[in-house]
Amino acid sequence: MTTLSSPSHRVHNLYWWIAWSALVLVLPLRLLNGSPTDLLRDLLYAALTGLCWLLERRYRRRGLLLHLLGLFVLFAGHTLSPGSLAQRLGEGYAAIMFSLVSAGPLFALCAFWGWRGALGGATLAAAGLLLIGTAGSRWGLILAAYPLVLGGTLGLYFHRLLHELEMLWHKLEQTALADSMTGLLNRRALSADYEGPALRAVQAGQPVLLSLWDVNGLKRVNDTEGHAAGDLYLLSFVQALREASPPGDRLYRTGGDEFAGLHFDLDSGHDLYARVRALFPQVSAGWVQLEGQPLADGLAQADQELYHRKAAFYRIKNLQVG
């Protein structure tokens, strides 16, 4: 099952798409019309982009930060390069051109890191302007600073908007993946976790147990005491399952009186079953050790064990009544 990526994740992907697209456009132009020094600088930056992209896949945001810092160095180098368009136009124009192109990475720093990004980006931009100079003109300094102020302001606004979208996305995700009555995760979340953290744990050699639970006697409670009492009956079981399960386990409601769990670092379900039944005796369970099989196969195996325990539960109950 695929899940929608968060707004920040999509923005990250968009950034790298823009970065690679810019390199694809710039490098051929540099080959046709550019000095060997500029070409070498851009080739080195292309290599840095690749390294940062790989770093980003392993350590989120670190590659992005390094790439943005490299952009300031790249733009300053091009602006200060002898014979560049910025140098031919003059010192004041060079500062304006530097601020125009640096407004982009400053915007990104503010968008992703807020005021921390704004402080760091403004420091880098100011250092670049000091290196380049503004021809001693007050108007030159104002014109050079204006794109940076605009880029930083828009970046901070975008950061706030992205934060609000991220919070809304998390609320929608929780609504889509959680059972409203019990607060447990639902079957959709079980599918996602099974294909995600559970499968990765199995591949790493960590034991993962899939358990199924069926609350006995719910229909009788609903028929004799009402559905409100039936809901409290289910919530009593959920509380017992939560107390008996180790921290870090994932618990799900997959049907009316049917529940499931993904238990990490657990080789057998016998002890867990005993702990749950000590708190809530009216329950049957089945479990299976995951070995990378599809979710449907794991559920079928666990359901077979549950069926046998449920049949044994009612045989014992009938004997006691008899």
From TrEMBL:
The superkingdom listed in its UniProt entry is Bacteria
InterPro entries (alphabetical): Diguanylate_Cyclase, GGDEF_dom, Nucleotide_cyclase, Rev_trsase/Diguanyl_cyclase
> Which residue range or ranges hold the GGDEF domain?
206-322
Q: Which Pfam families match?
A: GGDEF
Q: What CDD domains does the annotation carry?
A: GGDEF
**Which parts pass through the membrane?**
14-32, 64-81, 93-113, 141-162
| Keywords attached to this entry | Membrane, Transmembrane, Transmembrane helix
Query: What protein is this chain from?
Result: GGDEF domain-containing protein
Q: Which organism is it from?
A: Deinococcus hohokamensis
